[in-house]
Amino acid sequence: MPDVPANTPPEGRDTNRPQEWFRLFPSLRGYRGAWLTSDISAGLAIAAVGIPSAIAYPAIAGLPPETGIYASIGSVIGYALLGPSRRLIVGPDAATMAVMAGVLATVLQQSPALSQAGLVGAAALLSIGVGLICFAASALKLGNIASLLSRPILAGFFIGVAISIIIGQIGRITGLKIESDGLIAPLAELMDKADDIHWPSLLLALMMFAILQIVRFRPVGIPGPVIVVVLAGLLSIMFDFEANGIRIVGNLPTGLPSIGFPVLAGLPFAELLMGAAAIFVVSFGAGIITARSFAARTGEDVDPNAELRGFGTANIVSGLLGGFAVTSSDSRTAVNLSVGGKTQIAGLAAAIVLAIAVAFFAKYLRILPIPALGAILIAAALSVIDLDGLRQIWRISRVEFVFALIAMAGAISFGVLQGVVVAIIATFVYVILKETQPRVVLLGQIPGSQGFYKLHRSAKAQPIPGLMICFVQGNMLFFNADHIADRLHEIIAARAADTRWLVIDASAITQIDSTAIAMLEDLHRDIERMGIRMALSEVQSSVAALMQRSGLSDAIGRTMIFEDLDDALRAFEAAPQG
């Protein structure tokens, strides 16, 4: 019997209706007992992969290791409560952590006396804030806000984030205290302090990094981070790394996380709110891409608005348990699929294993060497860099490639948090550039063939004597009306002497405004004085309604507005000449 698709709602059910919002454990509907063994096995594998990143990732934002474990536990519980996907696994993410690090750095600037406990509280508040924003966005059906950062700009931004993370590990793998920020300053500080490098730490990091790369290119059935954590822990015991100057994780809390709302007192509210918004944009943008990429493999559908509720609950529960902001995890989801996990029971099983690890084995985790965790973070950052994707962007569009570089430079030069702003601005600039200059091309026919063809694309296509057909490839709004008008006047100026009609193919125009209406009215008057009749074809219903209310339809003439180009051509051929 085939598996039930992860995000397929029951027949006829609208998952965005209010009564569907708080239907608990939606991914467990139709659960089968035969899946339990697969889910528990997948949960063990997810926990094994999750422990290294759970301990390592908090260091990106200067948080203690236990917060990563709390986030890993809370997020999967929260997502299971309301998340729609059966197989998607949420958890700490390098890019989200990097943005949160930038937000926390801003918080520390506003509150320099903030203690470590206060920083943990700020991270938890940010996570809850991200969750609340997710619910608000879902209520407003803003699931498509994930497209706020385009794939090219996300690709460039993530490369910038990865480079920032790698630079941030210099101190951890060398044993130095690097105080500079940015890209060049930490490297310069490293050169100045080269004589003080703790070589055993650096050699250990290099060895662990080499193992990670070997396992990456020559898989052995056990994830590289698991091998590194086990091996580094054994070496730490054998050679007493702590006594030999290699920094270790240190004592971890041995109790289970308690539920509680973090205190806001003394924390800058405005910075936290704006920071939560920045984290939301990046985490949901990256998370929905991960969700869609895995859904494509399993033949599932992704409902962004339902995913917003799943991510929202994951972040809120993570924050209430003392964790931080999370999103979908590609590594944990990949392990879940590879082991055969069927539902979110796998995530819940992983949470139980992580809770047991904290309660009973924290004393064994304390001896993990920091340089090994730095190597894991560097390897994770490198995995984010998609050079193949960047090369493909270069092949497809040089303009998009430039914007990817802008996003990358923003994250590196201005910091990850400011880089989010740069990436969003770059997205809007790119959209505006595309929308302000829609193409306006001439159409014709190929003798012996049906349909209409772009004259500049097909050498066989020929203009129709006496008839100009202009295809406007985009909306007509205030910011591009002048460009379209200029292009149409250029075409009209170069017309053949026998031109009697100008037909505008409006099939691609889904939006029009009063500025564009006025432009078309002026165009109609101009060409009418030249003895040329104006017509429109395939006008969308919403556009037609606005044209009717403005009086443009009456000015052009209802008989000059056609269902399609074939109707327009027949009317042109039947019209008397002269």
UniProtKB/TrEMBL annotation:
Q: Which UniProt keywords apply?
A: Membrane, Transmembrane, Transmembrane helix
Q: Where in the cell is it found?
A: Membrane
According to the record, the segments passing through the membrane are 33-55, 67-82, 117-140, 152-171, 197-215, 222-239, 259-289, 345-362, 368-389, 401-433
Q: Which GO terms describe its biological process?
A: transmembrane transport
Domain named STAS is located at: 457-572
Q: How does it sit in the membrane?
A: Multi-pass membrane protein
Which InterPro entries does the entry mention? SLC26A/SulP_dom, SLC26A/SulP_fam, STAS_dom, STAS_dom_sf
Which Pfam families is this protein grouped with?
Answer: STAS (PF01740), Sulfate_transp (PF00916)
Q: Which GO terms describe its cellular component?
A: membrane
Top-level division of the source organism's lineage? Bacteria
Keyword check for Transmembrane, yes or no: yes
Q: Which PANTHER family match?
A: SULFATE TRANSPORTER
Q: What is this protein called?
A: STAS domain-containing protein
Query: Which species is this record about?
Result: Paracoccus aestuariivivens
